[in-house]
Amino acid sequence: xxxxxxxxxxxxxxxxxxxxxxxxxxxxxxxxxxxxxxxxxxxxxxxxxxxxxxxxxxxxxxxxxxxxxxxxxxxxxxxxxxxxxxxxxxxxxxxxxxxxxxxxxxxxxxxxxxxxxxxxxxxxxxxxxxxxxxxxxxxxxxxxxxxxxxxxxxxxxxxxxxxxxxxxxxxxxxxxxxxxxxxxxxxxxxxxxxxxxxxxxxxxxxxxxxxxxxxxxxxxxxxxxxxxxxxxxxxxxxxxxxxxxxxxxxxxxxxxxxxxxxxxxxxxxxxxxxxxxxxxxxxxxxxxxxxxxxxxxxxxxxxxxxxxxxxxxxxxxxxxxxxxxxxxxxxxxxxxxxxxxxxxxxxxxxxxxxxxxxxxxxxx
Length: 364
Ligand code: NAD
Ligand code: GLY
Known about the structure:
Elements: E1 2-7, E2 12-17, H1 25-32, E3 37-42, H2 43-59, E4 64-69, H3 78-90, E5 98-103, H4 105-117, E6 123-128, H5 131-137, E7 142-147, E8 150-157, E9 162-165, H6 175-192, H7 194-210, H8 213-233, H9 248-257, H10 265-283, H11 288-301, H12 312-325, E10 332-337, E11 340-344, H13 349-361
Parallel strand pairs: 2-9, 3-4, 3-5, 5-6, 6-9
Antiparallel strand pairs: 1-2, 7-8, 10-11
Helix pairs in contact: 3-4, 5-6, 5-8, 6-7, 6-8, 6-10, 6-11, 9-10, 9-12, 10-11, 10-13
Bound molecules: nicotinamide-adenine-dinucleotide and glycine.
Nicotinamide-adenine-dinucleotide is lined by residues 42, 44-45, 48, 71-73, 76, 103-107, 109, 129-130, 132-133, 136-137, 140, 142, 152, 169, 172-173, 177, 264-265.
């Protein structure tokens, strides 16, 4: 069992990383509150985990309202929020209730936003069930929904009261989501932790095949520690929190150019990291052997190729759109070395193009 504490000026909470902890949740909840529970989950996760959790909470006499959303990014909308607010109001959910977000990043971001805004904020517990959500989205307080004009444009910083991570729930995750989550794990190793990098290099084949809960407890807790440390230094992303966006500049452009329904987030980040690594070698001190080491690890995760009907120009256009949206310009997260980040502005269009080409061409 691992405990990670997140301590920000406004909130201190703990992340429990422990195999079989999901089964302990009703007991853990008892120590936190006797109040009513709103369980928000998606239809897939409800079928595997939500139904049994709701039944167990009900059997302890707990008042519980279950809200099931359709799976996928299309649920992260203000319309879905409106439906959830209505359900909460109609069911007289009061300020002493706690929202339990059971699911991947979509459920966590949406339910977190509901918790942040319903009656000006009620308590929130995150039980992330994808690897991406366990190592990234459930930690650090970014919650929100998409707007038709862009992803994650409506939101808040709102930390949970607790995060409960059980690596055993990852056994039911499909292969693509599993590999996509591992890309985010690899990202932490690249930006901060050469020891984790060596472990991943040595063990990736086994990790990919076995999803061993003991090994995952260590790896997930390490990623949460890195994220907690960064968030504690820079809660509002005014500085070092941007490091977490390594691979995301090109990754977001790939997701946007493919309509947000082709890539899993982590897959696009995997390709984005390939581009950012090449850019690092061109611009910073990242050595050719470090580049090859890093690329080899990403290749093991096999991020899908860019579809043939998506041109380089379309991806470049998305990058420029993103650049225009930011008054401060586009800051790239690059690596000086494996484990050491450098933020860089004003990268020429020619170099950007080279990075996008590399991200697209690799693994064809
Ligand atoms: P997701 O929530 O859509 O989950 C992926 C799929 O896996 C879904 O179909 C879901 O039903 C299914 N699933 C979840 N857990 C399962 C399990 N244990 N077994 C079987 N199936 C399971 O996707 P995601 O990758 O977890 O999250 C992506 C979202 O996270 C995006 O909206 C992204 O913007 C957001 N995100 C937020 C942050 C943040 O800091 N808030 C960080 C990164 C990503
Ligand atoms: N996922 C990036 C962040 O939380 O800042």
